[in-house]
Write a structure and sequence with these properties.
The chain is about 45% helix and about 25% strand. By secondary structure, it is of the alpha/beta class. It has a single domain, classed as Metalloproteases ("zincins"), catalytic domain (Collagenase (Catalytic Domain), 3-Layer(aba) Sandwich). It has a five-stranded mixed β-sheet with strand order 1-2-3-5-4.
């Protein structure tokens, strides 16, 4: 499924899992955080795929809720494991939908080159407020 923004750039959403995904403003989030010319792929991966990628690229065992992959200066991919997102949401005192939005924002900020820290925290709060 592809959603097009007004600038004809896309956010490609690939779902490897079953079930309906929440309605989030994927394109608007991407355009606001990364810019209209940025091409973003969002993958809802299986637990197995998430675990394999997490081990290969981070050296960590098991699935994780999100992985960010910068492919170039103008494109990237976010890989989410929906089960982990649902499981972790209460730990952050958020609903599944709000935590998913938070993780998308978090991942996009990593694609933008921002590391964990006070800048990341401030930007996450700002964008979560905007898109909640």
């Amino acid at each position: 499924m592809k959603k097009k923004s007004s600038s004809t750039q896309t956010v490609a959403i690939n779902q490897m899992t079953k079930g309906k995904l929440p309605r989030l403003p994927f394109v608007s989030m991407k355009d606001t955080i990364l810019g209209t010319k940025y091409e973003l792929s969002v993958v809802f991966a299986t637990k197995k795929v998430s675990a394999e990628l997490n081990e290969k690229y981070r050296g960590k065992v098991g699935p994780t809720n999100i992985l960010s992959f910068a492919l170039s200066s103008s494109s990237g991919e976010l890989v989410l494991e929906e089960g982990m997102v649902r499981k972790n949401a209460p730990d952050f005192d958020m609903t599944y939908e709000k935590f998913l939005a938070y993780l998308l924002i978090h991942g996009m900020l990593h694609l933008k080159g921002i590391d964990h820290g006070s800048t990341m925290d401030r930007e996450e709060r700002k964008f979560l407020k905007k898109f909640s």
